[in-house]
Amino acid sequence: MQREEWFHRAVIYQVDSSLFYDANGDGFGDLAGIRQKLHYIRSLGATVLWLTPFYLTPLQDDGYDISDHLQPDPRFGTIADVIELIAPRPRAGTAGDR
Q1: Which residues, given as ranges, of the chain have pLDDT below 50?
Q2: How many DSSP H helices and E strands does the chain contain?
Q3: For the whole model, what pTM was predicted?
Q4: Contact indicator for 15, 49 with CB cutoff of 8 Å
Q5: 3-state SS of the chain: helix, strand, coil percent to 5?
Q6: Do the Cβ atoms of 72 and 56 come closer than 8 Å?
Q7: Which DSSP symbol is given to 87?
Q8: Tell me, what's the pLDDT at 92?
Q9: Cα Rg for the chain, rounded, in angstroms?
Q10: What is the domain partition of the chain in residue ranges?
Q11: Angle, CA 51 vertex, CA 23 and CA 77 arms, to 5°
């Protein structure tokens, strides 16, 4: 019997980081905006969040030509915003759910 892998059951929701939700009002989607809408994304049944690149880039390949994998593009936020976005979250309906 073949073991079912997690990705066989996954519901993947892709977010274009620059277009999704603008939390700071500068007209450009950002990591804080994605974080603010996690509850909405979960309500759709998503179990995996797939983000388009948000790291520093010379923008010669639609942002996929990352120049620094350790530093987010300042338009998207800070490394603290990255950490806050990827921090483990309680399951929906439990104490502390955001």
Answers
A1: 94-98
A2: 4, 4
A3: 0.82
A4: yes
A5: 25, 15, 60
A6: yes
A7: S
A8: 56
A9: 15
A10: 10-86
A11: 40
